Amino acid sequence: MNRQRIKEMSLLLFSIVLLKQAQSASTCSSGEYHDGTQCLPCTPAGKIYQKQQFQDMLVLLQARFQLFVCQELILPRVQQHACPVLLDTIAQEEETLIKLNAIMDITLHQELGKDYILRLSSYCEPCPRGYMCTTKSKEKCPTGSYNYGKNPGCTSCSAGMFCHESLNERITCPIGYYSLLEAMQLYCISNDYSDCTRCPAGSKCPTKNASPISCDDGQYSTSGSTTCNDCPKGFSCPTKISLPQACPAGTYSDGKQTSCTQCPGGYECSLTTDSNQIKECQPGFYALPGSSTCLACPAGYECINKGQSPTQCPPGFYRLASSTSGCIQSPAGKALKSQKQEPLDCPKGYYSNPGDASCTLCPAGSYCPDTATKVSCSTTGTNCLAGSTAQEVCPSKYGCSSISSIPIICQSGYYADESTKQCVICPAGFDCSISSTKTLAQNGFYSPSGSIQSFVCPAGYKCVFSDLTGAFEKTHCSDGQYSDEGSGICTDCEQGFACPSKESSQMRIDCSKFKGLYGETTKLQKCSVCPSGYYCPYGSSLKIQCDSGYFSQQGADKCFQCPPGYECPNRDQNSIAPCKLGTFSTGAKQHCDICPAGYSCSSEQMFKCPAYQTSEAGDGFCSYFIAPVKSASITNNIVTYLQCDDGQFKLFGTLGCIDCPKGHYCPNKGIAPVKCQPGTFQDQEKQTECKICPTLDNEETKQFYSSFGEYQCHICPAGHYCTNSTSMPKQCQLGFYSKKGSTECTYCSDGYVCRFKEQEAEPMYSLCPAGFYCKADLANDGRLLQRACPAGSYQPYRGKTSSEDCLSCPKGYYCPAGSETPRNCTPGSYCIDQTEHNQVYQCSNGKYGTVFMGTSENVCNACPEGYFCPKGSVQPVKCPTGFFCQENQESGMANPCPSGTYSGPFSLTSRDQCQTCPTGYYCPTASTLPKACPTGTYNPSTGQGSISDCLSCPERRPCPFYGLSTFDLGLYCAHGHYCPAKTSFPNQFPCPAGKYSDDINITSSSQCLICPEKFACYEGTNTLTRPKVPCAPGYYCPSGTEKPTQYLNQLLIYPETKRVQERD
After folding, report:
1. Sorted alphabetically, which SUPFAM superfamilies does this protein's record hold (predicted)?
2. Residue 1005, number of CB atoms within 10 A of its CB
3. Domain coordinates in residue numbering, the chain
């Protein structure tokens, strides 16, 4: 097959494929084509064919190959859009097209359908090489096309080749060039088909017959490249056509990047590098984002976050330039002058807290054992002046008025208090001649604070020495205690006794003298009622537990045996319970016994089962058992069953009848026995009903009672009452009694105190106590009324029934309520008839009395001069110092020495005895001794009464002593110090650190001179006693330097800093 024939067949195949594309593209948009299953975009080399263009193409094919094509059937099937077929890709290899020979004679039925048949007919002479031919003429092939001959038309140069006009043949494009198919384009974009196109920069041309492929972002290529290059590490490729650019300092690239990445904060990127070569900053260095190198963190700053700017140290913290850690707080005991330098040590007598910028003088009232500690002076007997390193103990006989002042010797009439270490005026009733105190009170007496008068300790009180007040004071006895008048001691009520009153040992109650009461402990106010389960017999002060099987109620003096048919598990009456069926008790049992096997049991006793009957343990009744032979009677083969008698019962499954037990009744022969109800009993067996409890005992009407299942009724016991036969006995309450068989309790006879469960109206051991009367309160259900004889009367006898039995208290005595005997009237008081207590009639104000058992105010004497006598005084009280006392004076503070005078250590009798206050002192109202003007002041006048009368010493003239009458002492300000008005000591106010002075006449710190350069001046610097100090080696000292190591010379430590400064 010749080459022309193959080309013809290719063109025919092109038309068929093109037509099929048009048929399947009915749903595609402009710029797309249909591949048989979906719409796809046209390739860059594809062209758009309009309907008219496709029609012209078919006419051309018909003219060349004399093809008869039914255009009216084909064209309507061509759609708006189609993509061209690159024929050269089909015809590149001639061998692959030989198979198309069969197409010449076959009907392309499957491709175009049965209605459209194309047949290939014979054709004319082959067209010559380099020309295109029609049926009538030939023309030379245009530029960019070729024809090897025998083809009707010229062929566009294939992709990847160019067509040289002179050769009129295809030549393959060189490497880096490309050529696209432009055949059959009636409207070409470019008319130049003579040369191959050079692959543009920024693209790659791996094949010669395809469009250039744009490089990816981060790649680049030069013109004529067949491949794209990845941008290398450490470089960026901002465009695809430019060569790689090295990353600048502070950035990096991991390759194939359009731009370099900024170096992260805390890292350095010093060279063109990738992420594996960046370096983290060392401790003490930092780097901001985009940095090429790490910078040292400057002194006074910290770089906790290496990627951020340095942060200045907070106040009180510092950091050296060489440090690799953060800011450090200045420790206690040091002063932080600069946040860039080490803190400086504080001198002795100074202190500082953590973070302080300067050292502080240890204040008065505190001491500083080291420069890091400030301790408050003890408030007791110590003092600390400013700058102290230890506290000083206040000397003996000295007073320390405050912890911040110097000790002073106590003046005459004063004493140094051991607890407060202050000079205190000697109180009344004490001797301060040797700076000590001595009480005047004796045992059985008491003395109020500030008084030298002693009083008899009253009944019901204790009078003991008080460490707080330094005198004997009276205090109420506690409950359960007692004290007699004048004893001064509270005594605990002894075991076995009760003490309802605190005022007399005679009013104690012996608990052992009463049945049902006891007293096991001390300090009882009343005897304890014997609890249930115990008994408290007469003559015993202890409670005794009932034996097992016995019981008692509250207040019992003996225990009772648990009755037969009952159990007493808890020893008290409330727990008494009847024995259950199958158990029994013969009496005195804590628990009922289980009825044994082979016996029947009532609640009180057990009975052996009769012949042919038996029982199991706990059954409580007997029943027939199955014998070897039948026990029922049989006559003429007829079994006869016997009917149970009245009062018997037979349960299901048993063979014999059983007698109804005691304490029960059997109304129905087919059910179990029923217990007798309360108020009834049954003392016989085989009964159908219970008996009612009796109402007579020896022909006397008595109350009986019974509980469930009783075989007898019980008479209500004495000391109890039973309202009816169904109720259990209840004990009589306080003030009542009962005989046995009573339905109620009766109040006791007047003059008696009936205890719980009393059995007699007039029990001999329950007489009303002395000092009281007892009677039944008929208005309150007859309850016991025990009343104390009113105050002003007494009762020495027991068993009294009325207030009329109380006797009037005689003159010279007093009688509190409930008194058994009158009591002697005490000194300072007098007692008329029916006096209630010893302070009703006291000697009036301005008088005193020393007589016992006084009967009128005539026993009271007028208070003499130099003394005062409050109401009820036993003896005159010496007038206190600072005051004067005239005759019949009731208060020691009525007449004080006026302001500007003092009394001295004497008891005065008139105003004229008050002495004028001397110079250097002041005397407020009621002064005992003059008070010295404090240091820093003076007083040139007499008769001054206020501290404000003490004048301030003038400027430049210190006054270091107490009680000065002039400031002219020949003293002047010390060198290195200044003295304002009211200065106490020449060295009280030193010039501050950084200053000095040699002048003794300056009055303020502003007059101190600034310390010169190259020297340091500590506090109080002067030429004579504390000269200026030269600057320490390695440090520099500008004007006003406070100490020689204050400013470190940085140029000696960092020489490079000096070179930089010299260069600048």
Report:
1. Growth factor receptor domain
2. 15
3. 245-329, 972-1052
